[in-house]
Amino acid sequence: MHIVITGAGGFVGAALARHIVACGLPGQPAVTRLTLVDRRFDDPPDDARVRLLHGDFGVEQVLDAMFDPPVDVLFHLASVPGAEAERDCALGYRVNLMAPLALFERAASQERTARIVYASSIAVYGSALPATVDDATPPKPGISYGAHKQVGEIVLADLSRRGLVNGISLRLPGIVARPGFSAGHGSAFMSAILRAAQAGEHYTCPVSPAAACWWMSLQGCVGNLAHAAALDTSLLPAARTVTLPVLRLTVEEVVAALARRFGAQAVAGIRWQPDADIERVFGRMPALVPGIAERLGFAHDGNVDLLVERAL
Amino acid sequence: MHIVITGAGGFVGAALARHIVACGLPGQPAVTRLTLVDRRFDDPPDDARVRLLHGDFGVEQVLDAMFDPPVDVLFHLASVPGAEAERDCALGYRVNLMAPLALFERAASQERTARIVYASSIAVYGSALPATVDDATPPKPGISYGAHKQVGEIVLADLSRRGLVNGISLRLPGIVARPGFSAGHGSAFMSAILRAAQAGEHYTCPVSPAAACWWMSLQGCVGNLAHAAALDTSLLPAARTVTLPVLRLTVEEVVAALARRFGAQAVAGIRWQPDADIERVFGRMPALVPGIAERLGFAHDGNVDLLVERAL
Asked: Is beta strand A33-38 parallel, antiparallel or unpaired with respect to A50-54?
C-alpha cells in the first residue's frame, strides 16, 4: 500500500514515518511506498520504499506527485502552529484552511477510496471549556488555528459521508516532548519543562504548579495515529471526530515524576512565573471523558511515570 | 457607501437589489454604488448607481472588480442549491466552499472593515433535529450544502474576531414563493403550492397536509438581510450566527390561508402524494425559539395570512 504523510519533516510526522518504516500499520497490507511531504527533512528514514517530496502540500505539482501512485492512506499532519497562525493570518489561512481543503478534494477525486487520518486539535474547543469535555461537547474555537481545524473536520466528514474518502479526524492535545524551543506552540512549556529536567537545566515555567494540562507522549500519539489508519471506520460517528484519551495532570504531578526519574536535583532549577493568559488557555483543562475514543481502542500513556518515560 | 451583492441575479438577490435601490439600508449612509455580481441578470434595477458584474464571484478578475472601490457592505448570497450540490460534488465544493473562503479572505485584506452579511441556511442543522431548536442547538449538517454553509459561518466568525471583517451569518429557511419549478431546492414544494393556488392550477404535493415547515416570505427575507447590514454587531455572539425567526406552519394551515385569499376553488386542485424522504427532511420541522434573532430585531412574517400576502 501507498502511504503519504504531510508534515513528515516535523516532530510528529518524522516519528510516524520512522514507526511506519519499522512496523507498517497494524493488520494492514505491507507498505510498498511511503511518500513523505515537507519543506525540509532533518533526518528522514533510510529505506528503499521511502520517497521524499520537498515542497508545500498545497502546491499543484506536489499534489500531483503525492497522488501518483494512488494513495491508500494519507496522514495529513502539516500545519502552521496555533500561536504562529494567530500572528500571520494569511499564512494560517493558506496552510491551515485552503490547502487542506484542496488536498481533501484531490484525495476525493481519485478512484481508490483513500483513508485520511487528519491531525485535528483540541484547539477546536476553544478556552471556555465546560467542567467536563465529552463526545457531546461542541467545538467553539477561540483562535484561527482551532477554527481551521474544525473546518477540516467538517469537510472530511462530508466527503466521507459521500464515500469519496474514508476520513477520521483525531483531536490531538499538545504532544511532548518537543525538542528545543517551539515559539509557534502556546503549549511549548509542557515540553520545555520535561526537557529542562532531563538536562538538569534551569527553567522558568509560565504556568503555576497547579496548572492542569492534557498530556500525551510522542510515542502515544504515533500509536494512536497508526491505530486510526487501521480502524473499522464504520464504528465512527457521522462527524468522524475522535478526541483522543489523555492524561490530565497538573504540572506539579509531572514535576514529581520527573524528580522520581531524574532525581530531585534535576527539578531544583524550576521556577514559577505564571502568565495569566497561558495559564487560562492551557492550564485549566477540565476532565475529559473520551467515550468514543476508548471504545475504538485509542489510548493515553497509562500514568504519569510512563508518560515521562515515553516522552523523553 | 459601496454595497456588493453576490448572486444578485437570483430570486433573493434580485429582490434585495431592488429594495436597496429603493430604500437604501436603514440608518446607514446613502448608497453611492451598488455592485451586482452574477452570471446572469433577468431584470436588473435601472439606476445610475448600479453596476453589473457578469461572472463568477470566485474568479480573480471578478473579485478585483468587486473590491474596487473598497466595499462597505457585502451581501454574499451566491450558492449552488442543496439538491444540486448533492448531485454535483465538484461544483458544490467550488461554489459553496472554496470560493466563499477566497471571497472572505479578499474582504479581510482590504483596509476598510467590510460588513459581510452571509446567507447561511437552516441546512446546517441537518435533518435529525431535536424537539426544539434554539440558539444552543449545534449544527449537524447532513448534506454538503449544509456542511459548506457551516464552514462559511466558522471562517467568517474567526475573521470577525480578528477585526478583519465585520460578519454576520443568517441561517435562512426556504424562502417563498420562488417562481417556476426549482429543481435545485428540495423545499421547492413550499413555493410550488403557493404558486399553484395563485394560478388556480393542479398541484401534487410531495408532503402530507400535516407536514410542518419553516416559512418566510421573500419580502420578510429581504427585510432581515437589510436589517443585518445595519445592526450593531457587538450584540452578536462570538459565532456570529443568527437563526432567523420563522413561521412554523403545517402545509394544511398554508393551504387554508390560500383558500381564504384566493377562494376554495383555487386549492381544489391540490393532491397529496407524500414522498417519505422529502417529508422527513422538510416536513418535520420542530419548534424554533429564535432568542438571539428576536432580541436583535429580526422578524418573521407575522401570521399565515400575512405570509401568503407577502409571498405572492
From this structure: parallel
Q: Residue A35: phi, psi to the nearest 5?
A: -95, 120
Task: Give the tens place of pLDDT for each residue, B80-136.
Answer: 999 999 999 999 999 999 999 999 999 999 999 999 999 999 999 998 899 999 999
**pLDDT above 90: residue A184:** no
| DSSP for residue B266 | G
User: How far is residue A204 from each of residues A245, A269, B262, measured CA to CA in Å?
Assistant: 28, 8, 79
The phi and psi torsions of B218 (rounded to 5 degrees) equal -55, -45
Q: Region B6-31: what's the mean pLDDT? A: 96
Write down the ipTM of this complex: 0.95
Cβ–Cβ of A101/B102 closer than 8 Å? no
B185 is written with which cell numbers? 431546492
Choice among A183-197, A212-226, B280-294 with the minimum mean pLDDT: A183-197
Domains and CATH numbers, chain B: 2-173+216-243 (3.40.50.720), 176-214+246-285+302-311 (3.90.25.10)
Q: CA separation (Å) from B65 to A129, B53, B116, B117?
A: 43, 8, 17, 19
Preceding omega of A177 cis (within 30 degrees of 0): yes
For the record, the C-alpha cell of A51 comes out as 520517497
Question: Among residues 245-274 of chain B, which lie with CB inside 8 Å of chain A?
Answer: none
Give contacts of B 59-98 with A, CB under 8 A.
Answer: 89-90, 93, 97-98
Is residue B162 less than 8 Å (CB to CB) from chain A? yes
* AA letter at A226: A
Residue A183 is predicted with a pLDDT of 59
In sequence order, the 6+-apart residues with CB closer than 8 A to the CB of B118 are B76, B100, B152, B153, B156, B167, B168, B169, B170
Are the C-beta atoms of residues B203 and B196 closer than 8 Å to each other?
yes
| Nearest-angstrom CA–CA distance, A66 and A62 | 6
Predicted pLDDT at B114: 98
Closest chain A residue by Cα to residue B124 = A154
pLDDT of B180 over the 80 cut: no
State the Cα angle at A97 between A92 and A100, rounded to 5°: 120
